Amino acid sequence: MWSIFGGSKAEPAAEVSSIFIYPIKSCRGISVSEAPITSTGFRWDRQWLVINSKGRAYTQRVEPKLALVEVQLPNAAFNGDWEPTNTSYLVLRAPGMSELKVSMKSTGKVIDGVSMWEWSGSALDEGAEASEWFSNYLGKTSRLVRFIEGSETRAVDPEYACGYRTMFSDLFPFMLLSQGSLNALNELLKEPLPVNRFRPNILVDGCEPYAEDLWTEIKINGLIFYGVKLCSRCKVPTINQENGIAGNEPTEMLMKVRSDKVLRSNCKQGGKVYFGQNLVCKESLTQGKSKVIKVGDPVYVLKKVSSAAEAAA
What we know:
Oligomer: single chain
Structural class: mainly beta
Largest sheet: 7 strands, mixed, barrel
Radius of gyration: 19 Å
CATH class of the largest domain: Mainly Beta
Helix content: 10-25%
Distance between the termini: 16 Å
């Protein structure tokens, strides 16, 4: 384990170049200039979920049309102390659909039997209009639900990060990717891919390709983030986010250059490919002063491992 504890003269390893929030799981993200950090990740990130008639989560893996659903929040929603009013809405748009407004005030009924991956519990039903909208769009019975922060808890896998929580993100509160890694991958592909294929929360620039693999502790705007697990990729990066059509890339190329066989040959093999680093934020465990990161913030590496084979995965 390598570490530095930089003072005022420490050189940043990278800079935050973009921040993305995904209010509804598997729907389009929102690029923001700054984002508040809560106990479960960025505020509003994956707080809503589309479910089927049995209460199970829909994702782009099985419903790639979700990639075309645009989500808009009030601009003020990303101010740290902002609270929704009766006229605050989540505004949804999709091809062939009329605009849908969903109140950001929690007024719906609680429904049980909602499940996503390892988690099951209760959620707030966003009502008949939202249900009809998604049912018509997807062509099958659907409902839009919201995570109930006050009464529900979804813990991060304690094998990787004990005590942390998230809402409807896949596994961890944050996913970080570097522009250098994306550039390096695109140099190998016949057709370069945009960053939206990989759905990071934090995009950084200025570091070497795949430098983030090695980061186990970083500091951004005075906040400590732990790199807890290399991000193993599913089929979602193969789905074109502009038309919802899946292809073979980047998975085929990642299998050649970013598989566990290539990166972690001395470890147990699972046929996985890795791209990006999952994070938790130390300060998310404590209440108190507003916590926020911004585009342009320097990224300081406090601890890192020497190779991807040493990283948790």
